[in-house]
Every structure is written in C-alpha cells, then in structure tokens.
Write a structure and sequence with these properties.
mainly alpha; Methane Monooxygenase Hydroxylase, Chain G, domain 1
Amino acid sequence: METFYLFLVIFLFVLAVFDLSVGVSNDAVNFLNSAIGSRAASFKVIMVIAAIGIFVGASLSNGMMDIARHGIYQPQHFFFSEIMCILLAVMLTDVVLLDIFNSLGMPTSTTVSLVFELLGGTVAIALVKIAHSDGALQFGDLLNTDKAFTVILAIFLSVAIAFFFGTVVQYISRLIFTFNYKKHTKYFIALFGGLAATSILYFMLIKGLKESSFMTGELKDVVYSNTDTIVWGAFIGFTVLMQILHWLKVNVFKVVVLMGTFALALAFAGNDLVNFIGVPLAGYSSYIDLMAQGGTTTTDTFLMTSLLEPAQTPWYFLVGSGLVMVIALATSKKAQSVIKTSLDLSRQTEGNESFGTSPVARVLVRTCNNTASTLLSVVPPRVKDWIDSRFNNDEIILENKASFDLVRASVNVVLSGLLIAVGTSLKLPLSTTYVAFMVAMGSSLADRAWGRESAVYRITGVLSVIGGWFITAGAAFTICFLVALLIHFGGIAAMVAMVGVAVYMLVRNQIAYKKRLKKEALKEEVNTTVAKLRETTDGHEALALFREHSREELQSVLLFTADMLDKSVHGFMNENLRELRKVLAAVEEKKIHLKQVKRVGTLGVTHLDHDIAVEKGLYYYQGNDFASEIIFSIRRMTEPSKEHVDNNFSPLNDIQKEDFGKMTESIVAYLKRCASMIEKNDYHRLDDVIAESVALTNQLTALKKGELKRIQGQSGSTKVSMVYLNMVQEAQNVVSFTANLIKVSRKFQKE
C-alpha cells in the first residue's frame, strides 16, 4: 500500500506542474496587464522582467506553504489516507477548474480556488468521520472555517477599495499630467517617480519579501523597526534619481511601469506559490512522516499531527517551481487570452467589445449618467471647461498599438502594489488578482475610457468577471466535495477514474479553446490590409487599401454563400440534420464578422480625403448591406429546413429534388463567377453577369409557379411545399442581392 501512495505523491507533483502552468496563465494578468497594455517596452523585454521577478519570488518563497498543511483542516484528527484523499481531490479539481477559466479568458483567484477546494474536500471527509465517531468529533474539531470567511471578505474588500482608489488616484493624476503628459512632466515627474518607486519598494518589503527565505529574524527586525527611515530615504533618493533620468531624456513612466511589473511578479510568485505546490508538498511531507514510522502504523491509523509543524520547503522544489512558472509564462497562449480580457475592458480607444449588454449594466449606466448630469449642473462653467481641457482625449500620447497610456499604466502598478502592501500591514485580506484588476477598471473609468458607446459593454464585462470570482468559490467547493467523496468510497478504482476524467476535461477544454480562438479571430481585425489602413495617413494610399479590403471581404462573402447554399440544399435533400446545424452556426459567425467589417468601413472613411469620403463611404456601406442580406437569406433558407428535418416531416419528392438541385448548381456557379470578378477587379463582363442573374431569377419564378400548380392539384405534402417555396424565394433573393452587390462594388472600385 505504501508503494501505491508513493506513486500517488509523484502524481500529485505531476499535477502540480500542470497547475503551475494553468495558474500562471491566469494570474499573469496581475503583473503583465499594465506593461503590455501601455507598451512600456517590447513584449520580450516585459516577459523577461516578469520572468526574473517570478523566478526570484518563487526561489525565495517559504512560509506561505502552511495553508496547505493546516490552514483549513485540523490534521491531528485526520489519518494519512484521509489527508491524501483530500489532497488528490484538491489537485484534480484545481487543474481542471483553472484551465476552464483560462479557456474562457476570465481572470480568477488561485487563492480562492485553493481555499475553497481544501474546504470542500475537508467538509466531505469530515462528514464521513463525524458520522462514524458517535458524537466524539464535531466540525469545529476538524475544520477551520475562519479562513473561508476571510477569503469571501477579501473579495468584497478588494473590489470596493481597489475600484474606489483606482478611480480617485487616476482622476487626480490625469488632472496633473493630462493626456499630453510630456508637456507637463518637467514640474512633477521627479516627485511622481520618487513616490512611485518608493511605493514599489515598500510593497516589495512588506508583501513581496515578507515571508522570503532570506528574510531572517534579524533582517526582518531591522526592516520593520526602521521602516519610516527606509521609506523616507528611498523617497529622497528615488526622487533625485528620477529627475536625473528625466534630464537624460529617459521616460520615467516606463521605468516606473517596468519596476512595478517586476515587483508584482515577485510578490505573486512568492505569495501564491502555495496555491500550486503547497498541496503536493503537504502530501510529500505526509508520506515522509509515514515512512519514518518504520512500519509500526498503517495508512488508516496514522494521524497527521506532524502537519501542524511549520513547512520547511527544500530549495530545489522552489527553484524547480520557478523554472516551470517562467516556462509557462513564456509559452502560454491562454495567458494572453486572460490579459486580453482585462485590456479590452480598460482600453482607451474604441474597438470590438468582448462582452454583450445586461439589464444591470444598462440600469447602472443610466443611473450614473443622470447622477453625473445633476452634479455637473452645479459645477461652474469655467471649472467644467478646465477639467474638460485636462481630459482632452485628442491629445493622448499612445505607444504603438497601446490600449492606454503610460500615466495610467504607472498608476495601475503603483497603486496595486501600495494597496496590497498597506492591506497586508493592516491585516486586511486583499487579493492580488482582485486588486490589480479592479484598480485597472477604476483607472479606466476615471480616464473616461468608458464612453456612452462602450460603458454598458465594459460594465457587463466587469460584472461577469466579479461574478466569476464567486462562481470559482462555489464551483471549487462543490466539485472538490464530490470528488473527495467519490475517492473516499471508491478507493483506487475511483482515483483512477477521477484521473481519467481530469485528463479528459483538460483535453476537451483545449479543443474548446481552439474553437474559441477561431471564433475570436472572426471578431478581430487580423486582416493585414486593415492593419495597414489603421496606420496610413495618406489619403490615396488609404483609398487603395480600403478598396483592397472591400474586395477581400466581398469575395469571401460570395464564396462562403456558394458553399453554405450548396450544403444547406443538399443537407435538406438528404435529411442531414447535423449538416444543417453546421450551416446555421457558420452563418452566425459570418454575421459577427460582417458587423466588424462594417466598423472597419467607419475607420476607412476617416482616412479618406474629404471630397471622396462621402461617395466611396456610401458605396462601401451599400455593398456591406447587400452582403449581410445575402447571409440573412441563407439563414432564412436553412432555419425552416432544419426545423422540418428535425421534426421528421416528409422529405422533398424526386421532382422537387431534381429541379432545385439543378438550380442550386447554377446559382453556385453564378456566385463563384461573381467572386472571381471581384477578386480580379475586372468588371468588363458585368452585363453578362446581370443578364445571368435575370435568367436565374426567371427560372426560379418558374419553379415557384410549378410548385403552386402542384399545391392546387393537391399533390404532395403542404409542409414540404411551404419549405420548398421558401427555399426558392430565398435563393431568388441571393441572386438579386448578389447582382446589386456586384454593381455597387464596381462603383466603389472605379476611379
């Protein structure tokens, strides 16, 4: 049996490697958001700085491992086998749960996950022990509930405090520096840089390195007994240094952001490492203690009193964890997905919104607008004009493709670190994840990034993320509770089964994530032509790029329509429900993409010379509208067909199949010829295409007349006839809209 538990401990460490990967992927947003969002340095430089911070923090981590040893359960009342059951359930749940959140691109707290998984697993085993103890044991003997309540409190405190101070501090900072911050740096940059750097140092000493292995008792006493002296000395020194850097033409804001990134990465690794390796280390320690008994006890009789002792983590576990975290940070695409969610919610410029709207968000926006209007009505006009001049977004200085400027990025990293450090010193349980995210949201609100066009989407997104934090707690508790019970009663067979389920979930999540990436690609302006269009300032070049973009999109729509039309018709004829569902799903994705294409049109028009912008913009929008109508026609054709097949109604008869099958081939060929014409930008045979569209329309009209005669003759099913007539009508619409699209495309493309 001891051999089995040895393999189990090894497996826990294998799970820990996966947990480190998915955990870093999720928590990367805590320390990378500001640097990447502001483009404070190249992506490689940012990652190197963060990686060094992570490695140093992980290598110096120590005392925080105790939460996995005795922070939730009372180990002196649990046997070795029971402890191992809890620990395995926690690791299996944690890996899968965090991976799900990563796949969804939602930031969550690894601390909340760990605490509530431990709580769920402990409650499950505790219930079993209490049931068999004949009243000798109570929950208070087995469980430490204070930690769970502390974590719940941390959510509320972190959200409220971080959002409030993020809003206030960013508002004041913007009044001082404005969006054209380079104009106002000479007066305040030294003080701002000195205060920021001192805050970061304070954060590192109080939070990042407080429990580090090198922070011995003597050194800790020196640091904490002379904190005021250290802080004031650092402030004076950093202020002088920042002034010198400014004279040397160094961007102090970039220095602050990169320092903050390093400090947050160090603190994350140092304090949150327990969330990933604390559990397997507790299992390893338990196994070593069992083996030390020399066979005098068994796994079902050995009480784990030894876990009450402080953790002594070997250095090679810390260094190894640091290496895994660095590798995960450098290679994880899901980390970028989580970061993207945060950046989308806080970016200064307009763009695709990742979230929809919600009734709560709409009410909040309406209430805030009314409140703001009331407050502004009592503000003197001169004061209002002065404030508006400080928030002139037209003067914003953004690095290439940055989501927000360096002033906001500096406020984010400095304030996040300072709030966490102060919270730690005051014994307030502030979560790193929650503070970093909510400060970013508060600062974006203060910067007026949440305009009337985007506020409802941004608020919905923030509420979704906050809701996800509570869901994390509930899901972690419930899943781990059930897994622990299954393992306890199912034994080895259940353990193997749960491992299999975990592996299956990880693979399934990866497949779902890849599908999500594909879908997201439709929303993103990944087209290189569009990227060039964004950057150009030349009107003639913009028009050429605009035309190229239009050709690419319209050709894509027609080829897509040809494919979907063929699949829809043959799916109906062959009663292939799966094929019809695929067509509808593809059509919905195309609709999303066309919405984005329409937004690009607005961008294109703004880059055109004024004398041609109106005319060409009109033709572009007309073309996009016709393309949308074509896609809608495919949807209107497919939906009744899918419903018909799904209800197992009578199929088309042979005459209907033959007639419409031939028409489908002709229409598909027609669509492909139109697509080729647009691709080549050659419209000299436009009259032939128009004549073909008229001929196809007449043929489709003849099919409708023929079907109506069959209905009058009461031959065949009425339901079939209705679906058939709908297909013919929508096919006719496709032909007509395509002809109009070609005409408009020619007008848009010609000089």
